[in-house]
Amino acid sequence: xxxxxxxxxxxxxxxxxxxxxxxxxxxxxxxxxxxxxxxxxxxxxxxxxxxxxxxxxxxxxxxxxxxxxxxxxxxxxxxxxxxxxxxxxxxxxxxxxxxxxxxxxxxxxxxxxxxxxxxxxxxxxxxxxxxxxxxxxxxxxxxxxxxxxxxxxxxxxxxxxxxxxxxxxxxxxxxxxxxxxxxxxxxxxxxxxxxxxxxxxxxxxxxxxxxxxxxxxxxxxxxxxxxxxxxxxxxxxxxxxxxxxxxxxxxxxxxxxxxxxxxxxxxxxxxxxxxxxxxxxxxxxxxxxxxxxxxxxxxxxxxxxxxxxxxxxxxxxxxxxxxxxxxxxxxxxxxxxxxxxxxxxxxxxxxxxxxxxxxxxxxxxxxxxxxxxxxxxxxxxxxxxxxxxxxxxxxxxxxxxxxxxxxxxxxxxxxxxxxxxxxxxxxxxxxxxxxxxxxxxxxxxxxxxxxxxxxxxxxxxxxxxxxxxxxxxxxxxxxxxxxxxxxxxxxxxxxxxxxxxxxxxxxxxxxxxxxxxxxxxxxxxxxxxxxxxxxxxxxxxxxxxxxxxxxxxxxxxxxxxxxxxxxxxxxxxxxxxxxxxxxxxxxxxxxxxxxxxxxxxxxxxxxxxxxxxxxxxxxxxxxxxxxxxxxxxxxxxxxxxxxxxxxxxxxxxxxxxxxxxxxxxxxxxxxxxxxxxxxxxxxxxxxxxxxxxxxxxxxxxxxxxxxxxxxxxxxxxxxxxxxxxxxxxxxxxxxxxxxxxxxxxxxxxxxxxxxxxxxxxxxxxxxxxxxxxxxxxxxxxxxxxxxxxxxxxxxxxxxxxxxxxxxxxxxxxxxxxxxxxxxxxxxxxxxxxxxxxxxxxxxxxxxxxxxxxxxxxxxxxxxxxxxxxxxxxxxxxxxxxxxxxxxxxxxxxxxxxxxxxxxxxxxxxxxxxxxxxxxxxxxxxxxxxxxxxxxxxxxxxxxxxxxxxxxxxxxxxxxxxxxxxxxxxxxxxxxxxxxxxxxxxxxxxxxxxxxxxxxxxxxxxxxxxxxxxxxxxxxxxxxxxxxxxxxxxxxxxxxxxxxxxxxxxxxxxxxxxxxxxxxxxxxxxxxxxxxxxxxxxxxxxxxxxxxxxxxxxxxxxxxxxxxxxxxxxxxxxxxxxxxxxxxxxxxxxxxxxxxxxxxxxxxxxxxxxxxxxxxxxxxxxxxxxxxxxxxxxxxxxxxxxxxxxxxxxxxxxxxxxxxxxxxxxxxxxxxxxxxxxxxxxxxxxxxxxxxxxxxxxxxxxxxxxxxxxxxxxxxxxxxxxxxxxxxxxxxxxxxxxxxxxxxxxxxxxxxxxxx
Length: 1299
Hints:
Domain Enoyl reductase (ER): 604-912
Helix content: 10-25%
Mean pLDDT: 88
Shape: flat
Pfam families: ADH_N_2 (PF16884), ADH_zinc_N (PF00107)
Protein name: Enoyl reductase (ER) domain-containing protein
Number of helices: 30
Distance between the termini: 104 Å
Structural class: alpha/beta
Number of strands: 57
Low-confidence stretches: 914-927, 1271-1299
Strand content: 25-35%
GO molecular function, one term: 2-alkenal reductase [NAD(P)H] activity
Keywords: Oxidoreductase
Strand order of the largest sheet: 10-9-8-11-12-13-55-54-53-50-51-52
């Protein structure tokens, strides 16, 4: 046996020169040299090891390293001619200057030369072999790189589910045989292919595959795979590439996964075979992901824990093909490339053993909110003894690590030198408090086996602590050890001394604890309760609040995220009295009231909680108070229908409030409500009779004092129920600009009536006609004779009079009523200030003209409030009804506001809280009539580039109602139609209806559009709704399938945006970028077709993320748009680039992290070599391929493996259930101007074919759409290219802004 320092023979396998084509044994040379069995005593050997190689692994990837094709990854860089080839192997350590390895250790890993002895400068790429009850050769296979490749490739990359269909190529090889067995253990159906009858038999009889075939005997691989997978393939473990991959793509199922482990069929080709069927990645939402096992080596123990028991129990079998003798190495390796081997190919060199230490390190200093990606989990090795030069140090095995808020401060750079609070060192483990056991000790106070807790312990499995004075020995082990990170450790001490020493508490004091459910807060609260204090805490969720009260015994707790006013919340919890300003009546009023009849009481106080023992009560904070005419009557001492106000007590009336406390089962804290309340800041309402919870907060809360409250209900039921209107009738409304009158008039117009109103100023009259849409209006103060005035406006008489005034006006109306006219007596404001009401002279007309005069009070209709909301809310949201408010700010302005109402000073609904609000107006759709319906029809299936003549415009008719029998049908009027690239695919005859359904010749095209509902039998859609989804290319569409179909709730943005940024393209950009690409700040992003509907958004999302973004487009104009409008860092015209690979290298010298793929073909082929390691490609579309009879091949797919690239196709329909999440993100970006959006709009359905063909030829700039009909709501953009949308108040669009 050779001794240390002795010089011995060292046989080597040398690569002669780089190889093209199929390698031969003669491309390698076996030569013999010599080597000393001791490392040199110089710096060259620092941390190095000398090993005796026992087994060498033959692996397919080695073929790539025999070619002079430089790659970034040193593990795949070309071998050096004249030097030994290198790879994975098993060896014994002969000499070591590395602390992690000692002489005699058995190791496996990479960077081992094909020689008898190897000098390894980077032994961190070696693993100790701890399990010697299995053959050592297994560490070249099932327990080494191939085993890990199979395990992590299958379980992590493929994400398998029980029952799925799995196909494995090269299935009898070192990796394939294991993947198949793992899949069977998972309960999958497994088929493999191999290159001989013997191997096929092995797959079925030994490895337990369900089936297998010899690919060499199959003339049509597509047909072969269909035979074995009639329902398609869920998972393909790719070892072959080329024609096999092309065949598999056609047989993949939706959401299938392809783990690209290798592509051995391409390794010997000078020009790789092109992949023709890559487009299926999009339609079938396939994820194709390359991976390299080196990325998973930190998880080796996890792998061993899984696989060793299966080997020992015989549940997994493994076949090796071992060649004896290094001199036969070249033959073994060439045999692997030709498929001669059966099982794992290994070379046995000759016939003749520190721990891993996982660490959490900080990558970069953090600004803003930290992310998981700011850390990195790394694995190193450590010797389990205290180094000789570390006197007094202790080596710990960490058991529990404490997550504490102060750690965040150490993640940013700070000049603080305190070792407990200074910045972490980048690239080193973070540290903090922990519980650990002593593994070795150089300190007299600690010995091996001691349990300790303390600070300055690294976030790693093993930690050398050089300042053990920061550690405490644990003596009490009858409690959970984890408690020493909390209640028995730093947080517990913090709570104890912080409360008792710093706070100096006394029994009965009131204590508030923020972040009270945390490690410290929960203890402070309990300690305070032990002291006899009253304790309240705050936390950030209802679950935590419940925990504080039910588990930790706090007296009270609240969710701070639900509190609009922390001051009010704290006062409420502290049970303190707060001031409560009130408006009270001084004396009962006769004649016209004055402000001095009321007074502001500023001395009142109230506790912000319902008094104990008060059942069914609510305490509210009033937000808006309603000024209403009926309140005048209550200011007099009267026995009339409304009770008088109590002198010296707050006035009462309708208002909007938020609930602060409640003992009523129907109301809870935080609810918004409207109903009867006091004219004061806070009101205690016992047994509330008129109090409605506000469920719709997408409209101004003040509306619940008016259009959505008592005045709105009054107008609705007074008109529809009392007046029983018919279309075409003549309606007159007095006090028509008030809270009720303005609504009655608009409701009557929706009904198709002729409407006239009267008001008391020129300004109000103009408002009635120009804003509320009245047919006529007059100023009653300018009329000497009301009878004459009414005859002027109603020469044929009045059918309906909505009376708000009474007196002389009612007398004049009676003379002008038609037979069987109806008068709804809502109020008589002209009489409220009179000592003696005016007499009505013409009352006998009621008899002669059969008039019905009916008084009503709205409280009788409150039980039908939900019916009212169903009518009025859509009218508001769709702009069919406008509403004007006159809002006075501050409770102290209340008396003036109320008196102003009685004198007619107000314009619109008078409320107390001066701002104007108005919404959009539109007309009501008709129904039932027959109208013409222009359509764009599809002529015939297209091959090559589509032309306008492949479509034609025709006109038919349609009835504006949903036909009988279509119980869930919806009839819509199309407003905007979207031109999208995918539509060209639908113009071709589908060979696989599972992927897409082609257009039907002679029928309208279909696609995404924005429409208005004209008639509906569907419970989710009603007349007047705006919607977006799939519609026909026609003026009117009958919708019977609602996938997808969305109701448009937000109309403060252009409706056309729902064909783009707020519709399918926007969702495609959002989910494609954020979900499929998984971006990180600072990454390099490339977007093709970047000026299109999707690309322009992806680029802007990436910029918001803090990425470097480059886009390509097809004209100088578009390139300028990308840089100057959308904020791309750079952009280029791909048509001007003769070499796309070079162009991308110019813009991305360090490579591309994310490619958002819209183009395919040559562009994709150029991107692949420019991708960075672990790059992601989101395949949204491949427009360059849509017009080709035969797709271009993709030749550089091998880079997917080496660079661990993930290619994932996706279709946005899979994300439609997350539409609200998308809107929550993008709407604020639009409104705040953070995102620009450009549209290219063609006017008129007849121009639809030209618009669509123009999209395919790249004529558009921005999102291409067709305007079918004006929306009647929102800003209608008619310019060809629409610039940035500016967020304006809704009143500024389509209506005058009131001042």
